[in-house]
Specification:
This protein is of the alpha/beta class and 361 residues long. Helix content is 24%, strand content 28%. The protein has nine helices and 19 strands. Strands 1, 2, 9, 10, 11, 12, 13 and 19 form an eight-stranded mixed beta sheet that branches. A seven-stranded mixed beta sheet has the order 7-6-15-16-17-14-18. Bound molecules: flavin-adenine dinucleotide.
Length: 361
């Protein structure tokens, strides 16, 4: 059985940034285990050519408030650009009446050139990638004195076991207690705390339509729209920094209703709505994409099928007064005190989690 000082569960931005901070401290005795066959988790960008990609997960950060994330993006040498917000936004209240035009007053939100996945690629490029194990899902943790045994399902469904002194949980807390068995069991109140922490944006789905030309801008429209009739509840300009024109929208239809419709049909409804909003040029996108996060079993659970009421309240990082105390430390974005659920939250939660680790030793 291979043994590691640290095992990181999850290869989204939290897990990867934790690996980066460990390596920055000269620590190489760790293993990062990711269940998917690619890294990034809720940072996922759909490439349309070698340079351009559209974000299916997180899109924005807010540099005026999220200073730590902003500095990291800058220090990693990533290029950023402003979310396009010139012109008016649309409010759609009925399918039979034209949408109302409103002047937009929004805060400064930024995007990363090449898509948010660029941030993942940058962190990965700074790591010793021999410490990353893809397509392996952690299914059970068994606490045995100083060590924890980590049971992992391999792609061929065989089970592998690793041993570690310290586990960093870089997956959403609700997902952790819903899909990983803890032996002995976690304290009931702690488990409930993690189970009641909603996974930010897990119930949602995004639709993206790519066009030859940003025709809405010619009409002095920003590409932003809010609709109470749907299927898209909120629409934004998603054009790339390199110039490819696109619109994206959050699908307002609940997850259980989306399950009854094929993606092609759903895309058709979204397209029709874009025609209502922006005119006939919206009818012929070059390409369309849908990513339904509620259907992704490595992000969402049954409890995430309904939209959350606001941002998650940061849960307890580690179960106190239990055999698991400080053996497991939660570091996914939900654990952030300031930006729970946001990308900036992932950076903050990891920083605090790693600090806890080194205060402990
Ligand atoms: C549609 C959408 C839009 C968003 N928009 C924004 C935005 O504009 N701005 C913003 O700041 N934030 C946004 N977010 C939130 C942001 O994406 C997240 O805060 C951030 O990506 C979370 O990163 P994480 O590493 O903590 O968790 P995750 O990205 O969820 O990573 C967890 C990883 O663990 C893996 N995993 C799961 N279970 C196991 C297991 N048992 N064993 C091993 N691996 C496992 C998963 O495959 C995944 O790769 C959005 C999210 C979504 C879905």
């Amino acid at each position: 059985m291979s043994s590691f000082q640290y095992i990181i569960i999850g290869g989204g931005i939290s897990g990867l940034y934790a690996a980066y901070l460990l390596e920055q401290r000269g620590i190489t005795d760790y293993l990062l285990i990711e269940a998917n066959d690619l890294l990034g988790g809720r940072l996922k960008s759909m490439p349309i050519n070698e340079k351009e990609a559209f974000d299916l997960g997180a899109t924005w950060f807010w540099p005026n408030e999220q200073i730590q994330l902003s500095n990291i993006i800058h220090d990693f040498g990533l290029t950023t650009f402003n979310q396009y917000q010139m012109g008016e936004m649309l409010i759609e209240r009925s399918q039979s009446r034209p949408p109302q035009r409103l002047q937009l007053h929004s805060s400064l939100s930024k995007r990363v050139k090449g898509g948010m996945k660029t941030l993942i690629d940058k962190v990965v490029s700074k790591l010793d990638q021999t410490h990353i194990l893809l397509s392996h899902q952690v299914i059970e943790l068994v606490q045995e004195g100083e060590h924890t045994k980590v049971y992992v399902k391999c792609p061929d469904h065989e089970i592998k076991v690793f041993s570690t002194q310290q586990i960093l949980v870089a997956i959403p807390p609700r997902l952790a207690v819903s899909t990983i068995q803890f032996t002995p069991d976690l304290p009931a109140t702690f488990k409930e705390n993690w189970l009641n922490t909603t996974t930010w944006m897990a119930p949602h789905a995004k639709y993206i339509a790519v066009y030859d030309h940003p025709f809405w801008r010619d009409q002095k429209l920003s590409g932003s729209a809010h609709s109470s009739v749907g299927p898209l509840a909120e629409v934004h300009d998603a054009s790339s920094a390199e110039g490819s024109a696109a619109l994206f929208g959050f699908i307002g239809l609940p997850a259980h209703a989306r399950k009854t419709i094929k993606d092609a049909e759903l895309a058709q409804h979204c397209r029709h709505q874009l025609v209502r909003l922006f005119g006939s040029q919206a009818a012929t996108p070059k390409s369309e994409f849908i990513k339904d996060w509620a259907k992704d079993s490595l992000i969402a659970t049954e409890d995430d099928q309904s939209p959350a009421m606001g941002h998650p309240y940061p849960p307890i990082k580690s179960p106190e007064k239990s055999i698991w105390q400080n053996k497991i430390i939660g570091i996914s974005s939900e654990f952030s005190p300031s930006y729970s659920g946001y990308l900036a939250g992932a950076i903050e939660a990891v920083t605090l989690g790693i600090q806890t680790l080194f205060l402990k030793t």
